[in-house]
Amino acid sequence: MGSMIEVRGLTKQFKGFTAVNDLSFTVNEGDVYGFLGQNGAGKSTTLRMMLKLIEPTSGEIVFSGKNIANDNNNMLRQTGAIIERPDMYKYLSAYDNLYIFAKMSGIKVSKKLLMDQLAMVGLDERHKDIVKTFSQGMKQRLGIAIALVHQPKLIILDEPTNGLDPQGIADMRNLILRLSREMGKTVIVSSHLLSEIEIIANRMIIIHKGQKIVEGKVTELLDPANTLVEITSVDSAATLAALQQTNWAAQVETHTNKMLRLRMNRSDVPQLVQQLTHLQSQILSVQPRHSLEDYFLSLTNNDTHVEPFTN
C-alpha cells in the first residue's frame, strides 16, 4: 500500500520555544502507527497541526498526495480523531450524542447506522443511558464511535488509554486492532503505554524534544538478534574473567562491579547460562532486556538508569 500521510520538515515555534523541530515521517495506508515520546516531546502539537487545529511555523503535511494547506477539507472529511478526552453532552444519552455529532458531520443519519456504530464499540445495550453515568473507558469508546460515524479512512487517537483501568486498556487495545484488521482503517496512536504500542503497532516513530529519533517497523526496531542481556553475580569480576574463556567475550558491551551487559541474540541466552554455570560462576540473575520500553528509554533518556526489566 502507498503512503496516506507524509509530514515534511514540520516545525512549530511558540514565542521562541520550538515545540516541533524539522519533523518528517510517513504513515502508510493500513498502518497502526505508534507515535511515541515523553511528555513535552511534541506529540500532541504535531497531531494538532495535522488536524489544522494549529498552524505550523514551517513545513508541510501531505494527505493522499495533496498538501492540506491547499486542500484542508479533503483530509478532515476522511479523518476521525480524539485529541485528549472527547467532549460530549454529559446529560444526553449515548445515542443522542452520536446522533448530534453525526448530523454535524453532514452524513445521512439512520437509527440502524447509529446503533451499528454503538454496537461496534460495545455500547449498544447502554445506548439510552446518559453519558454522565459512563466510566472513562465507556466515554473513550463512545468518542471513537463519534470519530467513526462519517466512515473516515484515518483515525487519530491521542493517548486513548489515559485514565483507564486494566480492563478498559484491554478493551481499547482490542478495538484498535479491530479497526485495523477488520475495518481496514489507518490508525495513528499516541500513547505513553509502550507495551500497548508494542502489541498493536506495525510501524512507529519516537520523537524527543520535537525531533525524530527513530522511525520504522516495530519488528525491525525490536530485532531479537540485538538483545541486551544483563548479568548480575556474586563476583562480577570473576564472571567477566570466566566469559573471557568463551566465545561470548566479544559480546560484552559494558561492565561494572555489580553487572555485565552483553549484546547478543536472545535465542542464545540459554546456552550462555549453561556455559556460565559450567564455569561455576555464581550467577544471581540473567535479564534479557529488549522491549519497546527499554528501547524508548535508551533513546530518550540516556542519563537515567533503568532497572532490569522482565517481560
Q: Strand tally, please?
A: 14
What is the makeup of the main sheet? 6 strands, mixed
> What general form does the structure show?
elongated
Average pLDDT taken over every residue: 86
Q: Class of the largest domain, according to the CATH hierarchy?
A: Alpha Beta
As a percent range, the share of strand residues is: 25-35%
Spatial strand order of the main sheet: 6-7-8-3-9-10
Q: Helical residue percent?
A: 25-40%
- Number of discrete domains: 2
How many individual helices?
11
Could you give the distance between the termini?
Answer: 33 Å
Low-confidence regions: 303-311
The CATH architecture of the largest domain would be 3-Layer(aba) Sandwich
Order of helices and strands: EEEHEEHEHHHEHEHEEHEHEEHEH
Structural class: alpha/beta
CATH topology type of the largest domain: Rossmann fold
| CATH superfamily caption of the largest domain | P-loop containing nucleotide triphosphate hydrolases
CA gyration radius, whole angstroms: 24 Å
